Amino acid sequence: GRIIGSTSFGNYSEKDQRIEIGWTWLGKDFQGNGYNFQAKVLLLNYCFKTLALERVEAKTDVLNRAARNSLLKSGFVEEGILRSHTLLTNNRRRDTIYYSILKAEYFQ
Hints:
- By secondary structure, the protein is of the alpha+beta class.
- 27% of the residues lie in helices and 43% in strands.
- The protein has three helices and five strands.
- It comes from Zunongwangia profunda.
């Protein structure tokens, strides 16, 4: 019964039938073991089957290679980069890369 990490929903738009998955963290001991992938599958099933959404979005720092690989492994499609998108606490300007997956792609 340990908490190994967290991931959340955000930026929900009922009208547009879309939601964002993100704000994910995983304890060091649990990284690279497939837990994030399993969580994303459960969340995507919930989004598309229960909520009947058409689109699920995700974004991350362009430098976060692990998160980017995980999103691709989960079936997300890279959409583009917003340059100098976010000012981080260390005063670095983050380039943010966006991903999405559509219901039609998920249930191929």
